[in-house]
Amino acid sequence: MALVVALVAGAAAGLVVVARRRRAAPHPAPPASRHPAPPGDAGDPAGRGPEPLLGWPTSEDLERYDRPEGGAPIARLLDGLPRIERPRGRKARRWTAALAALGLLVLASQVLENAVFRPQAGTASGRAAYAGDHAEPCLLAAGCPAAGNPVPSGRATYAGAYAEPAPAVPSADPVTGVPMAQPPLPSRDPACALRKTGSTTPAVRPVSRRVTAAVNRQWRRMERWLKAHAPRTYASLNGPAGHVLLAKAEARLGRRIPDSLRASLLRHDGARGPAAFRFSSSYEIMGARGLVSSWPEACGLGGGIPFAYDSDFGDYLVTNSATGGVGSADWEMPYAEDEWSSYYALLKSTADALAEGGPVGGWVPVVREGVLEWK
């Protein structure tokens, strides 16, 4: 604002000085009149009329008073500047005045914007300001994470409102008995607790050959497509689970695993890694051990044996041990109805979508860098 005031004041002073210099400049003598001089002026050799009371100024007087009325400093400053020729023509003068006014307007608007929208001292900006708009003081004693510790997400975030605190000492694997670093989340419902198995090996139930042949046929279709189009997902498939492992899993659950799901686990015991095979839309298939360890939490969502898990939202795909139907279960809408009549129906729908390019539940398969995804 001070700069604008100084510029305007300087321009005004310059215009005033130029105007005064023009008024102070001597005017040329008028041309000689065609009419004869009056009798009283006959004796004037120069034809300038009667002599004034103070007499005619000499050349020394003119030189002494030949200076601008604005003062010598401004006159010397203006004399040192290059002369700017005045635009010729009315249109040129108008364009020059318009450009000068536009420049002053832009300069004034910029100064006004800086003065109005200048951030106050100590105000954060950017991502820090956004993060701090609604932030409140947090203490470690109140459960806030310490610096450098990641905030839990996925299943831990959703389970925190429903599940009890996990035991401090890691429990054993529900099938093999090997200590686990992360034990299953306990459930408030006693019916959802894992059963304890004795020292005896549970009896192995056979799987129907017809069901096994049908499940293997769909898996061969998907394996051919994955090997040709999504090799990284194809490489993520695990080998088969053992019959004894599945028998122990059923004993721990206290429920029978449907034959189509058991036949699938006997071909591929889940998948591994970031490129793991997923059902639509983003449910990663689990093996027998993952199925058992997820049972308490999935059972608390309304029942059903989990066989696929969405780590982004903590949702499950579950199958009803009584009817064999398959549906989804999450914290906002617990499992209530079947979306597929059986696990085999889901498997066939997925194989058809891969081979023919159709959707599964509104999701179509796509491949990115050798990884199967659903969009």
Write the layout of secondary structure elements.
Blueprint (H helix, E strand, L loop, with lengths): L1 H23 L34 H6 L7 H9 L9 H27 L9 H7 L22 H5 L49 H21 L1 H6 L6 H11 L5 H7 L12 E2 L3 E3 L2 H12 L5 E6 L4 E5 L6 E4 L13 H14 L8 E4 L2 E4 L1
Antiparallel strand pairs: 1-2, 2-3, 3-4, 4-5, 6-7
Q: Which structural class best describes the helix and strand composition?
A: alpha+beta
Distance between the termini: 56 Å
Strands of the largest sheet, in order across it? 1-2-3-4-5
The overall pLDDT, averaged over residues, is: 74
β-strand number? 7
Which range best describes the helical content: under 10%, 10-25%, 25-40%, 40-55%, 55-70% or over 70%?
Answer: 25-40%
List the secondary-structure elements in sequence, H or E: HHHHHHHHHHEEHEEEHEE
Largest sheet: 5 strands, antiparallel
Contiguous low-pLDDT stretches (5 residues minimum) are 33-43, 121-170, 183-187
Total helical elements: 12
Question: What is the rounded Rg?
Answer: 47 Å
Shape: rod-shaped
- Proportion of beta-strand residues: 5-15%
